[in-house]
Amino acid sequence: MIKFLLMVNKQGQTRLSKYYEHVDIGKRAALEADVVKGCLFRKKEECSFVEYKDYKLVYRQYAALFIVVGITDNENELSIYELVHNFVEVLDKYFSRVSELDIMFNLDKVHIILDEMILNGHVVETNKNRILAPLLALDKMAEG
Amino acid sequence: MPAPIRLRELIRTIRTARTQAEEREMIQKECAAIRSSFREEDNTYRCRNVAKLLYMHMLGYPAHFGQLECLKLIASQKFTDKRIGYLGAMLLLDERQDVHLLMTNCIKNDLNHSTQYVQGLALCTLGCMGSSEMCRDLAGEVEKLLKTSNSYLRKKAALCAVHVIRKVPELMEMFLPATKNLLSEKNHGVLHTSVVLLTEMCERSPDMLTHFRKLVPQLVRILKNLIMSGYSPEHDVSGISDPFLQVRILRLLRILGKSDDDSSEAMNDILAQVATNTETSKNVGNAILYETVLTIMDIKSESGLRVLAINILGRFLLNNDKNIRYVALTSLLKTVQTDHNAVQRHRSTIVDCLKDLDVSIKRRAMELSFALVNGNNIRGMMKELLYFLDSCDPEFKADCASGVFLAAEKRWVLQNPTINAGSYVRDDSVPNLIQLITNSVEMHAYTVQRLYKALLDDISQQPLVQVASWCIGEYGDLLVSGQCEEEELHCAGLCDISILCLNPFYSLLVSSRIKKVVSIYGSSIDVELQQRAVEYNALFKKYDHMRPALLERMPIMEKTATNGPTEIVQTNGETESSALDSKHPPSITQPTNQANDLLDLLGGNDVPVIQTALPTKPASAGGELLDLLGDLSLSGGPTPAPAPSVPISQTPFLLDGLSSQPLFNDTAAGIPPMTAYNKNGLKIEFTFERSNPNPNISVITIHASNSTEADMTDFVFQAAVPKTFQLQLLSPSSNIVPALNQGSVTQVIRVLNPQKQQLRMRIKLTYTLKGAPVQDLAEVNNFPPQSWQ
Asked: What are the residue boundaries of the GAE domain, all occurrences included (chain B) (predicted)?
């Protein structure tokens, strides 16, 4: 299962964090810093899977933003790698050419999208239209 | 009070902060504003405030005062409020807070709400952070939702059920009827989550596993449709139709097919199809192939399929993409146990991966290389691995060094003491390494020289110091000069090990410098150091005659079971004859592997030392060289040989338990017995044993038998040897040789033959036969060559 999902920029600032397994608030900062350090300093030729403590990290870089997913050993790493890309594509569709600023200023909406995709550490839905349906309905409600 | 700022404003303000302190200030100001706003119980802006609070929480600032507000939002009727409320609950609350139980009622109501989105929200929250009490209360509702026709809700309900099962396993049966037609859904979301639910149930309970086995054909059909169907825009990812679902189904098939022949057979075709038809140019295809390979390996597939799987992995290894290579190495590690030969074919590629720049790949390659080491390729592999050890990062060195020792142990080949990694070696490898060194007798000289040189360079690595000082102490005579010892003593300083290296001293050269150093430690603060120093001091002063025996070489240690660094790869696909059958008699209690501390090995477990530490007899009896011609009264004789358990009170460590030890080893190395004397009815036979701890000692047992009609009483056997030998006679079994070969008298002789010369002996026999004393001298020259070589 997925343990957590983080979006961190190159300066080490967390843009989004979602934990599917409880981690103490105090420990979260340390964990994020550690994870970021592990991923930021990897070179281009190195593979996207890092072994960290007793689980694995799958990371993917998009411009200045790193998306890091912590998974347990029994997950298919390549599949999660694809999932990250899927997530970014959904964001892209909703925000039309998403950038880091979009994510920052619309954090609650990004959370909603993420909740539609991953529930309790497992994948719920990967179809872009179906993921965005509730959010679009919510937007319409807010306007009206 | 002015309206609270919107979230965007807050974010913008925070971004303008230039230092951490500024940011903290801004946030604290905003927190205060939010708090006062909460106190006013303002409904309109609560949503906004909580959103801001969540943002600040993400940055790491405390936000617990917002928990109750989240609950109020959840209870509100507006969807926007509920949304933020539930989000806040998921982020801020968990089952450790007491507040969360208050949510139960809200969630219950929302699960029955008319709007599906609200229901979905409730399911999501319950699925993420529901505690066991909440789950118990609401399981019924979840189950109801699992049966609805609304696919949006069904998929969420499925995952919520997974959470409920995890928290309250007893409720699993409740969800069983609902799963009946889960797989007949068309909606991929529902399919996906149903497969997850089924996987969870199968993993938790073997009964469920057998129950769900009948679903295998259905799963196979779904998978087939996915592959065969043409382009479907809904789920397409780079040309493959819903790879996520495919991967999930493959995983469930793996669980169902494990150790079950029928299911495995049903799956064979589809697995072959997936393996051959999937396009591998993109990562997606490789993800599916990876899962397929794992499934093939785990179920009882036919051999053709297995070969196909290993070939796929081999292809992965040659791929340029790092990710794929990493994945291939991981799966090969899992399969090396069962399909060892197939993996061996890819050995050269794996060894190449050791040189890769990527840390993860290097680690995998290293583990796999250790798994592949066997008798044939040990030399080549060791070369590569040692090169890797030298050049790799520190975090690897510990495991690599330990792995090298483990592999070396199994093959009894110590190619090259890996000095550089000395400091990184794990503690428990130290006794193993020492064992290894003692076993490779021919390497002693080389080993000790290398170790000494390394020690001169760098004294700080503790395991290295332990090993080196032990070896130098043991084999110091192989080092060139006696000077080395003393210098090292000074360097070792406070380390306990310094006392260790005094321990088995070669020769009787006790130089004054060493005595001085030891006496310094006699007043050290550390109790153990002090005790040992005093003991050694006493030894130097008083017991000169015992010192040589005490300070002889340590015998070769018997191998004990070792815990290697990679426990998975203990058997390298070969049958290991129990290498624990060693040459030593089983009566020696073995050092258990908890003896991480080297001191324990030599101190607490004093057994091996005792073997050779039989004290020579006090004064001149027995142990001394004898004049060939005269004075035979000194050898043996009726004086009973003092029992070997001479108590020496000051050195309890070394000589404890002496009395419990057998005096000689039992290995008859096949040396034929010989008749030494046969005259007047008295026949004396010699049988030989080779004393194992020290190859220079021969143990001869004499059997005296009497073929005359009368007993021979007062029987005394004495022996003398040339000056280059040392002789020790132990007490005879009795003084009376019974008549007519009814029994025999046995006596043990130990001969030390350091120069390996031809053994010669003169014997003198005295006995009384029929009242008349008889005395006879004889020379024994016909010792078989094996007894003294």
From this structure: 669-784
- The alpha carbon of residue B671 is apart from the nearest alpha carbon of chain A, in Å, by 58
A106 min Cα distance to partner chain B (Å) = 8
User: Which residue from A minimizes the CA distance to B126?
Assistant: A120
Subunit contact A76:B358, Cβ cutoff 8 A: no
Give the burial class of B592: count Cβ atoms within 10 A of its Cβ; 0-12 exposed, 13-18 middle, 19 or more buried: exposed
Kindly state the average pLDDT of the residues B152-168.
88
Dihedral sign (CA B357, B361, B364, B368): negative
CA distance B630 to A61: 95
Interchain contact, B284 vs A82, CB within 8 Å: yes
- Which chain A residues are closer than 8 Å to B155 by Cβ? 124-125
Q: Would you mind telling me the total number of residues written for chain B in this entry?
A: 789
Nearest Cβ partner for A17 among B58, B90, B327:
B58
Sequence-distant (≥ 6) Cβ neighbours of residue B591 within 8 angstroms: B431, B557, B560, B600, B601, B605
List the one residue out of B198, B306, B178, B181 whose CA is nearest residue B249.
B198
Q: Are B688 and B789 in contact (CB under 8 A)?
A: no
- Could you please report the per-residue DSSP string of B508-525? S---HHHHHHHHHHTT-S
Read off the pLDDT band of B585 (50, 70, 90): very low
B372, B572 contact by CB (below 8 A): yes
With a CB cutoff of 8 Å and minimum separation 6, the contacts of B298 are B254, B257, B258
Q: Is the dihedral of CA B106, B112, B118, B121 positive or negative?
A: positive
Residue type, B435: Q
B193 with A122: Cβ contact below 8 A: yes
> What residues does A123 pair with on adjacent strands?
A118
For chain A, the maximum distance between any two Cα atoms, rounded to a whole number of angstroms, is 50
Q: Supply the pLDDT for residue B714.
A: 81
Q: CA of B151: which chain A residue's CA is closest? A: A130
Q: Please give the C-alpha separations between residue B267 and each of B186, B304, B363, in angstroms, as whole numbers.
A: 22, 14, 34
Look at residue B728 in the predicted model and tell me its pLDDT. 81
Query: Per the structure block, which two tokens stand in for B119?
Result: 């229901």
Tokens representing A5 are: 């999902």
- Chosen for mutation from A122, A135, A136 (greatest number of chain B CBs closer than 10 Å) is A122
CB contact under 8 A, A81 and B323: yes
Q: Is the CB of B235 less than 8 angstroms away from the CB of A127?
A: yes
Query: Is there a contact between A115 and B58 if contact means CB atoms under 8 Å apart?
Result: no
∠ at Cα B405 (B402, B410), nearest 5°? 130
Question: Are B70 and B50 contacting, i.e. CB atoms less than 8 angstroms apart?
Answer: yes
Residue B479, amino acid: L
> Which of B117, B237, B248 lies at the smallest CB-CB distance from A134?
B117
Burial of B249 (0-12, 13-18, 19+ CB in 10 A): buried
Mutate which: B360, B361, B393, vs A, most A CBs within 10 A:
B360
Q: What is the pLDDT of residues B83-95, one digit of tens each?
A: 888 888 888 877 6
Distance set, CA B521 to CA B483, B498, B526, B532, B658 (Å): 20, 10, 9, 9, 28
Tell me the mean pLDDT in the region A60-65.
86
Nearest to B271 by CA among B227, B238, B239, B229: B227
Contact residues on chain B for A108, CB-CB shorter than 8 A: 7, 51, 54, 83-84, 87
Are residues B127 and A120, on separate chains, in Cβ contact within 8 Å?
Answer: yes
Between A and B, how many residue pairs show a Cβ–Cβ distance under 8 A?
Answer: 145
For residue B497, the model assigns a pLDDT of: 44
Q: What share of chain B is helix, strand, coil (3-state, %, to 5)?
A: 55, 10, 35
